[in-house]
Amino acid sequence: MASSTPQRSSLATSSRIHLGPSKVTVDEHLPTEAYNAEKRKLSQKRKTLTLCQSSICGYLSPWPTYASGQTILHNRKPCSDNYWKKIGGWKQSILGTTKPRFLEQLENYLRKELLLLDLSADSSQELRLQPYREIFEFFIEDFKTYKPLLSSIKNAYEMMLAHQREEIRALEPLKAKLVTVNEDCNERILAMRAEERSEISMLKKEKMSLLKLIDKKNEEKISLQSEVTKLRKSLAEEYLRYLTERDARKILIADLNELRYQREDMSLAQSPGVWGEDPVKLALALKMTRQDLARTQMELNTMKANFGDVVPRRDFEMQEKTNKDLQEQVLVGRQARQLESLRDDYEEVRKEHEILLQLHMTTLKERDQFYTELQEIQGTSTPRPDWIKCEDVVAGGPERWHMLAAGKNSDQLVDVLLEEIGEGLLREKDFFQGLGYGESILPSFLRFDGVVQNKKPTKKDVINLLKDAWKERLTEEQKDKFSDFFFKFLESRFGSDAMAWAYTIFENIKLFRSNELMRQFYDILMEKKSESVYIKQKETVTQLLKELTNVDNQNEGVLTMEQLSTVLKSTFPLKKEDKIQELMEAGGWHTNSSNADLLNYRSLFVEDEEGQTMPFVHKLWDQYMSEKDEYLQEIKQALGLELREEVTLPKLRETLMIIDPSLDKQTLNSYLNQAFQVPVIEAPEESEDNQENVVAQVRTVLERLQIIDVRRKGPREQEPAS
């Protein structure tokens, strides 16, 4: 090349000028002036580029093997005799061949381009690659035969370089973030050190003030002597435990080292040529070294075992004196903290007293206001019904009416009247019309098309029949639905009249809603309640009676109120004190009664001829229902969703574990199964995404949980059990 400028323009514009092994072409689509300039440059290059003028044969000379030059293409036919003669002569004179001019031109171009680059910039390495990239493009364009292969190689390297650039660009923000985090940590360390210095100065002041009180506490030395003995004993036990743990750790470390040595032996046996030495010698040297190490380790362990627990007497006495001083300081500080705590408690009680006084005054004002409003309402409201008029209407006269109305409010008395009226109308019916087969929600024992006879049993007969059904249900395996079981029970008892008895009993239990046994049986038949609710309640009552019987050592059937309270608290550990108090009052305890009063506890569990339980068992049922409602309300509040919003299965699972951490997996899965009406098992991690698709409305979830036996299994973590 004559000058650097023409050389660069002719070599760099590979898209316009193509340098081949035998010819150089110019793009005729260039402008006229540029075209003439390019022609002049190419005419000059034709004089200098004599490298590839004889490349018809395509033979690549072996010049790089024997000389310091590049490839030379010879324009000879391999089949001619002259060709092989010249090849022989060429091989003899190859050692004297000079470097090809095309190679020299490329090297000169590369050298000048590298000198012209500004390597002080950040992208110097990227710029340094550009001349090499252009040289490689010249080769690709010049060697047509190898152009696809060379192009694929170039593209592979370009893609890898682009990938590396993207990774470097992605790591640059992390570097800045690391600097920021480092500065933040340094600031935190400085703040913690300043806080520690202030705390140390405060502790020093407290130490000086406590040292003045040491002389007044010498008389407590005798009482602390026993505590010191106990601490020494516990210290010896801890020392023995740590010593055992230390020996175990040493054995574990020895085992780990042995395993590592075995792994090294295996690696040496598999690759003996890596170290360049005899593997037998290496294995022998390694074995001897391990024996020396084991012997040294054994000696070291012996020395530690013999002298590890030896303490100089001077240090022991000093530590003992320091221990006594610290114990006295701790005692003084504890007394000071107790005094401060008592002061804080007194101040808190005083504030609460003032608040209660204000609340008392507010309550008095509200009482007066409510009394005034009551007087106004009594003057304008509808008078209460005179229930005494019902004595002559109800069958049985005043005595039966007083028995039915005992302890009931107006709403319950209305239900009693409706039952009396309905009972009379029910006895007047001779037949019942079948409900057919069409409705899918109709229980199986009522699916009948036609007329069935009214058997007209008494209320006592119906109750006895229900009790017999429950006894048989509890003794068999509960595989069938309760409604199917009930119809099979009627078939076994009444044969062909089973359908008539089914309708008769259904109409009776639907009517007598005030009777606890009939109401529960009706709810279970209509699937408003699960039979597990009734069974669990019966088991609870039986367990409570068993606990009371165990406390009654004399088997006299009586217990004191204090014993009853103790059994109730142990049987129902989650019930609060006011709930226990309600059960005590339902059992016969009053505020003017003493704990020594005797109680016939067996009478609390007696049922009358109509299946009605005593107030004590009835209060247990009421408390269970209220606790169940509170539990479901806690679930709703913990979900934080409206009733019409949807909740997923994992969300409900998490909520149940938060409000009731003591739930076992089987109970939790049964709750989720009932809430979403899908089989729920202990799902693996990969099926959590599928569970996200199981959703239901909050209202529907709560209604479904209301059906089954849902109760708290344990207290929340932040609140202790009552």
TrEMBL record:
GO terms for cellular component: cytoplasm. Keywords: Coiled coil. The keyword DNA-binding does not apply. Pfam families: TSNAXIP1_N. Residues 200-234, 332-359 form a coiled coil. InterPro entries: TSNAXIP1_N (IPR032755). It comes from the Eukaryota. Residues 107-216 form the Translin-associated factor X-interacting protein 1 N-terminal domain. PANTHER family: TRANSLIN-ASSOCIATED FACTOR X-INTERACTING PROTEIN 1 (PTHR16306). This is Translin-associated factor X-interacting protein 1. It comes from Myotis brandtii.
